Amino acid sequence: MRKAVAFLLIAFICIAGVAAGGSGEGGSGDTYKIGFIGPLTGDNANYGIRCSNAAKLAISEINAAGGIGGKQLELIAEDSEGTVDKALASYEKLAYMDEVCAIIGPVFTSPALAVAQRCQEDGIVMISPSATHKDVTAQPATNADGLNYVFRTVPSDALQSEVAGHYFYEVLGYRNLASLYAMNDYSQGLALGMKETFEALGGKVVAEETCMVGDKDFRTQLTQIKAANPEAIYIPNYTVEDAQILEQAAQLGVAVQFLSSDGFSDPEIYNLAPDFTDGVVYVGPAQAEASSILTDFQAAYGEAYNGDAPDSFATNSYDATYIIAGAIERAGSADTKAIRDEVAATKDFQGANGIMNFAANGDLVASQGVYEVDGITPVYVGSFQVVDGHIVQVD
Amino acid sequence: MSTLTLYMQYIVNGLTLGAIYSLIALGYTMVYGILKFINFAHGDILMVGAFIGLLVYTALTGDAAPGAWTLSAFFIAMLVSMIACAILGMLIERIAYKPLRNANRLAPLLSAIGVSFILSNGAAWIFGTQSRRFPYPFENDPIHIGSITITPHQIVVIVVSVAMMLLLTFFVNRTRMGKAMRATSLDQSTSQLMGINVNRVISLTFAIGSALAAVGGILAAFDFRVYPSMGTMTGLKAFVAAVIGGIGNIQGAMIGGVLLGILEAVGAPLLHIPNGMKDTVAFAVLIIVLLVKPDGILGKNEREKV
């Protein structure tokens, strides 16, 4: 019943959006409009709110410095609630009603896959700060010019799960792992990718358990994993699920090493399960070399948002905003194709995450970081890349 | 670990979950028994109960280490939350349902959905959307019995739920007001002719159901955490539990809840399918039960219902 009501509302908004659309361009007024799509309400709103806050911060900095060619930037943030249907409704509003120059987001993988297809079709630049599934940048360029419009400022899962599999096997020396992952694109993509790499090296995933995003009880899965007696458990999920998995595992006496993914880099985990995070090892974004851009961003973010700390996705979102702003400036107009060309031409961009470049398919060129949690503080182990089938520490 | 102990572990976990579903299912079933109306805002009342419980508890204890004081503070918080939710339940009934009592049957249903949105969005507005931990008011080190593990919080959940259900059973069967409730559920207009104040009975039903939801919300908070949409899925499952037990029947709601909890824990491993499908298994079994017994397990067999 609730769904039906929500659906009617969305349908109504879509109709309103189409009716109000028509002519005009994203920069035709006094501003360049940039869209944002992410979960601003719901269980995982923490990711979306931090990303949109970071984008807002970047835009207010650019505007305070005089904007671009005398025009101000404007961020229009839409709430996807982390779902595909809401994200598509948001996309339609941004693309057809607001006629934005470019879109930051969507934050989650499933909505990003759906919106990426539309961006490729309509020819609007999309930069996701956080959608890591390998297929996000593999959507066919269905626009008239056959150009790629989808980019991201977060490394692809393909890279993350490959480094994870090698690190667990070669560096940590595990041979038997279990995994417990949510049946969504993000977690499943990582778990299956890690398994592929890990088993190709000669290891074995002895128990593969699944759950749904939003599940609260993982005791059945953990009991099964306990019975399979693995050396470590890989939990590439979002913080809410990971927090409960760690806590319930401790309650069930599952005393083995836990391994996780970049979802674990959200500090929210330390509010939700502070007593259970000690010793967790996770593969996440490679830490940027300490740069003044990063520390300035973190300080400005804390000041703007009541001392809150930005997570790695928020940092990516901040960089994405500056990349788009730079592209608009060089393009000198709100023409979406000109902006795309400039985003694609981004070379050695100096961001909060260090020096950034895009591959031809829109993926970020990057290495991966490994972290080990000490109490409630992640300690950086180092940056790693897989070279010629073996893991290599980069710094 | 042998298969037997494995399944016993699943059942312990399922019982904890089931006890919570039962408590919440009681609210649906009592209101349905009297008004033939599904109170869709019930799930959100459990969320409000969890928030009030958490606020009162943290205000009382601060950062105190678990001990006798935190345990008493926990029960004080539960009591305050029960009273607050009872009042909230009565208010909602008075404002949103009573004026529609003689309207089309769909009208109060839509009104309930409206109330549900107001409560969950209101909570999101006031408290923000992030999940919050409910700290354990006692040392929660797991207890090992053979190779089965149970935590003190699971024991508290089960004991408090059973105590609440016993209290309710006593109230409905052994007190004058309980008798009035049973009479009203059988025949409202005749009860009124017999001198029963039906409005008061209805108010009381909402108060009791909401107070039980508050307890359910606080007990669920340990495992589920506290956030504005926590009542949606939990409420839906409790509603299903009420239907499966035979909606309108108090014992049915208790049985339905426990059954659903155990099905969720045991269903997927028993059928060797991925655990991500556990809700699918639980709901599929429930459909089968309904096909065999459309009125639910205890539906219609009982003369007395509330």
How do you describe this structure in short?
The complex is a heterodimer of chains A (395) and B (306). By secondary structure, chain A is α/β, with parallel strands linked by helices. Chain A is 43% helix and 21% strand.
Description of the structure:
The complex is a heterodimer of chains A (395) and B (306). In chain A, a hairpin with a 2-residue loop joins strand 14 (377-387) and strand 15. Chain A has 395 residues and is α/β, with parallel strands linked by helices. In chain A, helix 1 runs parallel beside helix 3, helix 3 (84-98) packs parallel to helix 4 and helix 5 packs across helix 6 (185-201). Chain A is built from 12 helices and 15 strands. Residues 14-27 of chain A have low confidence and may be disordered. Chain A has 2 domains: 2-155 and 290-356, Rossmann fold, CATH 3.40.50.2300; 157-285 and 368-393, Response regulator (Rossmann fold, 3-Layer(aba) Sandwich), CATH 3.40.50. In chain A, 43% of the residues lie in helices and 21% in strands. Chain B is mostly helical. Chain B has one domain: ABC transporter involved in vitamin B12 uptake, BtuC (Orthogonal Bundle), CATH 1.10.3470. Helices cover 74% and strands 2% of the residues of chain B. In chain B, strand 1 (143-145) and strand 2 (148-150) form a beta hairpin. The longest helix of chain B is centred in the first third of the chain and has 33 residues, at 3-35. The radius of gyration of chain B is 19 Å and the shape is globular. The chains are: A alpha/beta (395), B mainly alpha (306). The A-B interface holds A 1-2, 5, 41-43, 45-46, 182-183, 209-212, 214, 216-217, 219-221, 223-224, 226-227, 240, 243-244, 248, 250-253, 268, 271-273 and B 1, 6, 9-10, 13, 17, 40, 109, 113, 116-117, 124, 129-133, 140, 142, 144, 149, 151, 220, 223-225, 227, 229, 232-233, 264-266, 268-269, 274-279.
